[in-house]
Amino acid sequence: MSLTSIPGEVPAVSDETFTREVLRSDIPVLVDFWAEWCPHCRVVGQVVAEIAGERAGSLTVRSFNTDENPVTTLTYRVMSLPTLLLFRDGQPVRSIVGARSKARLLSELDAALAD
Asked: Catalytic positions (predicted)?
């Protein structure tokens, strides 16, 4: 199973690495659930890559190919793409489904992290 990343080179996680890289992280993790066949995923992936660079150190960002990793996709009931899940202390604290502008996405993330 490959660990291909979305455009922008956001590091990928898989079913095998999800617990270690996402659930055990000391800082919040934004996971971008995507698929090759999803055109909106590419747009969101570019925005997520920008956020990854801007928030490095305070937010970890990872990509997750749903076609290659069905177990975690089912575990978190990802039914639509793109889906972004924000994890804090190993728990999902916000689900964002569909495309968003960068400003709106940052606003939603900041609100979730302020809780």
From this structure: 38 (nucleophile), 41 (nucleophile)
